[in-house]
Amino acid sequence: MEASVKFTVQFIRLLALIKKIPKIIDNNDRHLILIKREIEIMKKIPYPFITDFYEVLENEDSIFIVMEYVSNGTIRNTLNESGPFSEESASIIFAQIILVLKHLQFTCNVAHRDLKTDNILFDAKGNIRVIDFGLSSTKSQTEFLRTQCGTPSYASPEMILGERYGYSCDIWSSGIVLYEMVTGHLPFEDANLSKLAQKIVFQEVEYPNNLSLGLVDLLSKLLTKDQTKRITLPEIMRHPWLKDNIKYVEEKLNSFRIDKNQIKSKLISLGLSDSESNEDHESVAYHVLKCEYQLSNFDSLNVESGCMSQRQMPLQKISILPKLCVLGNHMILRGSTSRNKTKLALICTGKRRPTQAQLIQL
């Protein structure tokens, strides 16, 4: 059985991705431990360059994870279609990746552990979204991990050797991603996993002559095999090849502001009273609408300007407490059951995402 099925739901201005995961695969439910861990981690790590988590639904057979749909494919897709990135483009993209790692490490105490070009998507403006936190782990700044996981070509030497490791594994993987972006290929490749592991642990990286000295210097520090000597996140952010774009991206993010009056007007337009629209604005754009409803014999979700596409989602007897997350007129969902018995008005996006018009344009 397929481990997950993805649907897209059309909203007024955005798409949401609904990932359907069977509770039983091959007669066991061991995968649910990873799924539940991924959900818990995604709830605690909202950030503009991480795909948004909206809601999790559940019935007897499946779990449905509702998240942001990101439209422009992965870094790997772009490499396959267009070849290597210029250093200028790669620098802006890599600045966003490093700011994600900074957020995960210093704000959330999370190690991603599977950073790769397949797990970094582009939105319509060319900004990134990091996805797939199924192998992520929470840890303190002083704890170490030992689990061997992730994709072999991006795994750090210490992970391959079974040594204790920390956030440095993500720094190594980011170096592999940057190398792949500017060259179009991986620094270590072999169809034989044992030989691949030997190359990662012992073989030195070869750098094409067309790369600038500054980029080669940063790559060599990211791909230092001894994790105790590998460059740290603060040092990466100060590196001459990257620091200007780190500053640029941070300034763009810090300049974003939310109009609370616009949020209030949108809530009222959806039928909430003036007093209800004032609730919970201490957390800026979050408002929790206590709207519990039953979905029975649910065939499809009728939505303004769109409907369920690709496949129908069979949900039965689900009771949910949806979140009403508001940012201007962004992402409004008005839905009903097929028999028009229960209606739902939902705005999703919230304080953690600038509108697409306000996101950084490359």
Structure characterization notes:
The protein has helices at residues 31-44, 75-82, 87-107, 157-160, 168-183, 193-202, 213-222, 233-238, 243-254, 260-269, 274-277; strands at 5-10, 15-22, 53-58, 62-68, 110-111, 120-122, 128-130, 137-138, 286-287, 293-295, 302-303, 306-309, 318-320, 324-325, 332-336, 343-347. The chain has 362 residues and is an alpha+beta fold. Residues 1-14, 140-146 and 280-362 have low confidence and may be disordered. It starts with a strand and ends in a 15-residue tail after the last strand. It has 2 domains: 5-69 and 256-358, no CATH class; 75-254, Transferase(Phosphotransferase) domain 1 (Transferase(Phosphotransferase), domain 1), CATH 1.10.510.
List its traits:
Aur-like, 2 domains, ATP binding, two-stranded antiparallel sheet, six-stranded antiparallel beta sheet, Kinase-like_dom_sf, single chain, non-specific serine/threonine protein kinase, 11 helices
